[in-house]
Predict the 3D structure of the following.
Amino acid sequence: MYPKDVGYEPPNDRKSSPDKGNVQKGEPILLLTLGQEEVIVSSMNVKTLYKATVLVAVVAPLLGTVFAIYQLWERVVYWPDIILMLVSYMITAMGVTMGFHRMLTHRSFQAHPVVKCLLLIFGSMALEGPAIQWAATHVKHHAQADREGDPHSPLEGFFHAHVGWLFKDDMADPNIYCRHLLKDPIVMFISRTFLLWVVLSFIIPFAIGGWSGLLWGGLVRIFLTHHVTWSVNSVCHTFGKRQFETTDQSRNEWIVGLLAFGEGWHNNHHAFPRSAFHGLSWWQFDLSGYIIRLFERVGLVHDVYRVPAETLARRLLKPTGAVEIEPVTADKTL
């Protein structure tokens, strides 16, 4: 059953939008913009190209990180390289956690157009796919969490949940899972120009630090961003503790919460998907949530969604382990 506060309408059965009627649901598509015309290429060649691209995006940062570790061992790494890597990691990770996840997918807050644009650009620089596809995949995950159809459930294996799912052909269709975003000009512009932001994510560190900057601020940064993000799918559905009752296997894992700026409090998130804050206790570090609060105070974001205290208390797991699972109904909202 579709989760009750992801922030979207339940998926419908439409296979495509009217102007893309010849594209089958879930089939990888290549959308090319030529002047004012959009050309859709959909074939087995696109599937092969997609898998090859994913393979390069996964393996290249890994190889770069191995080489960076070798350089670190040989003591040929300098502090500017490390600082560049940390700063670029923070920027792109915030783009994923605040931009792609909380703002775009769950509508946990509304942002000023400039802030919205920057967050989506930073998220695109993480090399995790266009914003529109990222949102569709994540909505599908919540709709079918840890059940058949979940894009990255560890029920199909830990490796599958972490990275193996990326090589599947069955991509989430934005026309089904987030069709309203197709009408958002900012989202669609950033999604269509995804490759531009990817290229810039390599050019900028190279311009700052040369080849070593490209290595640490480019490949190592992407490797860390990828595996920290993927750990939410794999680690946080396998290890950790559960604070709230949910119908899936989501768990809170503090290490991922620290590295992913609050995303590791994943059981909290699955219990209250629309919440702008994943750290729901004072000791649960949620850097993304702290920045959202700061942005709210200075007027850069608004309509920040908070879960009422009584709702939090009602959903807590019982200490004895005996729990009552509330039925999920379409007309019941948090």
Observations:
- The first helix runs from residue 44 to 73.
- The chain has one domain: 24-315.
- The two ends are 16 Å apart (CA to CA).
- The mean pLDDT is 86.
